[in-house]
Amino acid sequence: MEIISQQNIWLVPLFPFLASIILGLVLFFFPNSIKNIRQMCFFISTSFLMIAMFVSFYIFYEQITGSPIQQFFWSWIINKSITLEIGYLIDPLTSIMLILVTTIGIVVMIYSDSYMFYDQGYIRFFCYLSLFTASMLGLVISPNLIQIYIFWELVGMCSYLLIGFWFTRPSAANACQKAFITNRVGDFGLLLGILGIYWITGSFEFQSLSERFFELLSDNKINITLSSLCAIFLFLGPIAKSAQFPLHIWLPDAMEGPTPISALIHAATMVAAGIFLVARMYPFFEMLPVVMNLIAWIGAITALLGASFAMTQRDLKKGLAYSTMSQLGYMMLSLGIGSYKAALFHLITHAYSKALLFLGSGSVIHSIEPVLGYHPEKSQNISFMGGLRKHMPITATTFLFGTLSLCGIPPFACFWSKDEILTDSWFYFPFLGFLAVFTAGLTAFYMFRLYLLTFEGEFRGNLSSEYQFYSFISIWGNPLFGRNNTSLLNSEIANKKDILYPQESNNFMLLSLIILTIPTLLIGFIGGPLIFKENDFDFLSNWLRLSINSLNNIHSENLIEFLKNSISSLSIVFLGVFLAFFLYGPQISRIETTSKIDKSQFLILNSNSVFVSIYNWSYYRGYIDNFYYLIFVKGIRFIATYLFFIDQWFIDGIVNGIGILSLFGGEIMKYTEGGRISSYLFFLVFCMLFLFFLYSYI
Question: Model pTM?
């Protein structure tokens, strides 16, 4: 028991980091033995992370049984003017995140063994996956801003490697570069904010910098505008990492990575890092009302935009990606209005629900690829799905549970956390509450749209006129057969009629889905309202009060009051569900799907209708990507071309002109210097006479 004491919490990130090193060495020294040792590599990754999970559960148990907050530091850099330290911080927030990362990480690894089994990069994938998990765990236990920044960058590097895992596909290569560059903008702001806060408070440690800032603020010794500016710079990091508007553009493109990575990024690692940092710095942000309002409004706008863009996406994974963006906006909104507990509560419930949804989508994609081909435009396009509940009943049921949870329908997990955010938003500022409730209705609409078009109705994949051609497209986007081989393809399909419909995934993938269904159903009760009014706080609130003294419930209520206040939001949610059933329910089979298979909406709209403009605005992501491309990409290219012209014809022209002038001048002068004194005297007298006559003339 001494080995897994709280003083040894550094073992939690160490074990997955060691697994990553071991797998990297195996891949380096035995590159030709991947098929024979892949199971051993899977065992190493999973067992090492499982050890970290057991240590995390022990720390969690110690915290909920009353163990005090602990900090430990080792001196890293000692100088006369500055001392940098590394160490760990154990408090309820740390315990929550450790459990979240390790449990979801274990499930994703079990799932990935089947999903990636035939991939040539199997070992490389698990190497990256272990390093990704270790980086997030190191970030979680960090006690100061410097250590967090180091692991923050490691998380960004791992996301770059995993999003671009299939880097030979141009779309994947572009997606990882887009994510990396977008996050560089946020990380630069984060670095400026860290340096600015250190300049103001003289500390990098979370607790001491908050206390020092409070003292300076109380004594009126600091400039509140400068402090707010530093806090906004710091907030740029979470804006980019958690895909908040306007730095959200990388998130849907990140779906180019393998689906298990999409689940881990969207549930417990990269996007959760931004929420975690804002929660960790909450005592500091709370003293700056302008920054808190900014956080709230950015969260509200992000939630609304994410839901609006998700309504029309044809790609199953991109629809879930915009759903993540919207839910992260809810969390930022909650933190901005001071509802600290509700934000962390929704982080927990959303993590398990979204992991379930992404792994469910991966099960669909994995099963439908042999039917439609490996190109994402086919295998992830909900236009070519439908009716999968008949062929994949377990996947469909678990996906439905995740959908119900994310929509906020009781008694599923996200209902308790999301409705608390909606209630707190109404009490804080009614317009923010209106945006939050309206977004909840959109969430119900787009989530049931995804479910209905994927699992209900009739299977539409084999109705496509181009089915035979796309069915033989490799994962890299290159056709395995040409268009002239249609007869060959038809004969292949005729001989293999059993692959015309997708089959249920294997047991390991289904086991992962079933495991995640349990917290999706039950985890919401840890933070839900009390049945009786005898106590003011629920279990989660009482526990989180240990780590943040300023924690308060904007509106504390018991179960009956909570359910009464949720009637209005549930009405909006069920309205969204009804509209989704009306537009995309099983009755869509009445439409001629053969001729309209390419229309994911299955709606016939007048081209002059205002709905077409709204649809296009949503489908093309509000034209934000196009705007950024026009301003930044084309703008930078234009400026670069203009500067190149100036450099080539003006700067280089001046230098080259001086060189040419010197060359010709030297050529002329060499004929006047023959070494004869009489010639020099003649030239001197000639010049003097010329100047004399010129002066006389003037």
Answer: 0.85
